[in-house]
Amino acid sequence: MAQKVALKSHRRNVHEHEYFVEEIHYDPTKHHHIIRKKQPGVEKTHHHHRGGGSSYFKKSHKKTASVQALTDVQLWVLDRSVFQMITQRLGMERHSQIINFLSKVSIFANLTEDRISKIADVMDQDYYDGGHYILRQGEKGDAFFVINSGQVKVTQQIEGEKEAREIRILNQGDFFGERALLGDEVRTANIIAQAPGVEVLTLDRESFTKLIGDLDTLRKDYGDKERVATLVREPPSPVKIVDDFREEFANVTLKNVKRLATLGVGGFGRVELVCVNGDKSKTYALKALKKKHIVDTRQQEHIFAERNIMMETSTDWIVKLYKTFRDQKFVYMLLEVCLGGELWTTLRDRGHFDDYTARFYVACVLEGLEYLHRKNIVYRDLKPENCLLANSGYLKLVDFGFAKKLASGRKTWTFCGTPEYVSPEIILNKGHDQAADYWALGIYICELMLGRPPFQASDPMKTYTLILKGVDALEIPNRRIGKTATALVKKLCRDNPGERLGSGSGGVNDIRKHRWFMGFDWEGLRTKTLKPPILPKVNNPADVTNFDNYPPDNDVPPDEFSGWDEGF
């Protein structure tokens, strides 16, 4: 519940609450310079109401400005977590309402819930007062309308008649303007809002074509409506563990694992190069995560999600998880090792990649994303650091701590990811799905070719501000990233998730068909006959020269006995 407080005339930083001005003025200042004055009420930004203390992110970050009262001020104070919970719940409810409504509209009857969800994302909502002409006969049209509430009157001017003839009344769930989606046809009737007013959902021709294709797709009876209905209504299935390649590790315990070298370190723990039963001809990566650190940072759910998702995957484009262990201090993941190192290290050493090199690594990632998306998994952590080079030079995705399995056609509201790679809908807490990965793919292309992320600032808040300005504000194309690559980036990084390349009816194939990939050997990539642009130098299964050097680990974490890791 919000509480009313009086803020006296002194400077303070606000971190854990949202502040809504009730009366008097105040100034947000930075470095003693007035940024702007605010009037009583709630600040309106990006069509979402936010208070003076609004934060876009889940975790605590340093505020980029202070708020100084010029006089005594009365504020309504709302705890940040409560504010985020309310906005998340409202967003989820609104999205579900639109999906449920559209699923009952006859023209969408043959579409899956996933496709209807994407249509809901790109539909605009408009309101017209009674008597307003929504469409006029003879005008060119490029939009399709569905009545969400209210009524409209359809009239038509008949040759030889003075007054327009009333044809019919359309009600909630009825639609009009669909012929405009077929081509540049003029409107054949007038559509007039009836009192007191009408609310409509609109879909423009470009979005319709991307998401659905054509009207024949909607009108076609697939003869399989029962299957579609089952697909929409059935709950998500339990995790299916793909274990054919894991059988040889069934009897392996931690005692059988011998550490050979360190591949990486972090606050979470370490990644070690290991062998099993002393056989150094086969090596693996052992990821050891500190249980106490996981509990302190409340990452238990993410760790289990990572384990479950990786246990469900079996593809050449994702690092394989063979087995998990746990003891009093750590939980462990025994993983496929990629001795070519992180793609980020290669990018750092070379500065940037040319078109040919970048195209290969983007194609590898695209194969991995397509595999995940088919399983309704959103990755949410694409970046060069999470792309490992196998000995063959081919790329594999790793680190699924932010990945999440979604129910078909649904979204998630968790704020997570690397600041430079998060999409606008994540920043604005609008809910997101697999389309967030397509945004990240566009950023990934830029980083590979520019040698740095396109949106980069001194702190996350400034980075988010740059992201919300959009890709059109970037100085591309330039000497490193050409016009064709830029065109692909701009199609992937559309502000509206439903308009991004890959989100349409053609899915990932729409990305493969882009001019930037013209002539690329996709079949050679899948069969591994395509020569990689860079072949890592790996002398033996224990060669770690493609990784940075790390000091020995002298930090012994405390025991953790809460039992959260039971079943890991």
TrEMBL record:
Q: Which residue range or ranges hold the Cyclic nucleotide-binding domain?
A: 52-104, 107-220
Q: Which domain of life is it from?
A: Eukaryota
Q: Report the enzyme's class at the first EC level.
A: transferase
By its UniProt entry, which InterPro entries does this protein fall under?
A: AGC-kinase_C, cGMP_dep_kinase, cNMP-bd_CS, cNMP-bd_dom, cNMP-bd_dom_sf, Kinase-like_dom_sf, Prot_kinase_dom, Protein_kinase_ATP_BS
List GO BP terms, alphabetically: chemotaxis
Q: Which Gene3D superfamilies match?
A: Jelly Rolls, Phosphorylase Kinase, domain 1, Transferase(Phosphotransferase) domain 1
Gene Ontology CC annotation, any one: nucleus
Q: What is its main location?
A: nucleus
What's the protein called, per UniProt? cGMP-dependent protein kinase egl-4
What is the organism of origin for this protein? Caenorhabditis briggsae
Q: What is the lineage of its organism?
A: Eukaryota, Metazoa, Ecdysozoa, Nematoda, Chromadorea
